[in-house]
Amino acid sequence: MADEKPVYLSGTTGNDELYGGAGNDGLEGNGGYDRLFGGDGDDVLRSGDFYDAAAGLRLPDKLGDVLDGGAGNDHLFGAGGRDLLLGGAGDDELRGGAGDDLLLGGEGNDLLDGGAGLDRAQFSGQRAGYSVAKNGEGYTVSHGTESGVTLGIERLVFSDRALAFDLKGNAGQIYRLYQAALNRAPDLDGLGFWIDAADRSVSMLDIAAGFTHSAEFARLYGNSVGNEAFLSQLYQNALHRQPDQEGFDFWLGALNKGVARESVLLGFAESPENHAQVIGSIQHGIDYIPV
Question: For a designed S-S bond to 285, which of 34, 163, 216, 277 qualifies (C-beta 3.0 to 4.6 A apart)?
Fold first, then answer.
């Protein structure tokens, strides 16, 4: 363990635990599944590459390094892998690097940069207690007298719900699928269920099949309608218009050749026309309740 003097500790290529003290310390994991604890002081923590290990905190399935800055104005840098970065008290800078990371700034005015991957920033309070405003390439998240800036963060996770910004990714695709299939905005619980499925690598085609085999879908389209009737109803539900003949003939030909209805539904959901219809509802983020 480091004492109160500033120190630099570098781990091995194995699985290390490094502890700073009350000084301004530098801790570097240097490979393996590492746990770095800065303690008090203004610390710099850097992870290395990682091996998978189980962990909690609503993380992705597998966790890489854990970086805990403790009190002080800390700088935490993740590397490749699914890292957990904990800023603690103070005005911290957390940068996740590559991988699907979870960043918790803690008290203070923090900068949270997820880097590449599907990254989450987690906050302790309910969504209603925070304001979220666009700020250049990222967002400013304010709570009381504190505010932080997020960059490259796809999900803001609060105690009661979450806000997704991956409009071209899983969250946006699921929202558009709801609108196209069921002609309505998603319910927050259902949206959270399907976003979680997509995040766990369930294919969009399989998710679309979940919609086409649902009771609500059957009520809208009928239990045993032919391809022409199905397609006409899909134009109405998804695009709110009569079919154009060229488009109708194209999709009908695909269905008659054995293309699955869920595949056609997915084509409508991701069409430029449906994108244009939906963007006004999701451009400031997508609310959902996580699983």
Answer: 163
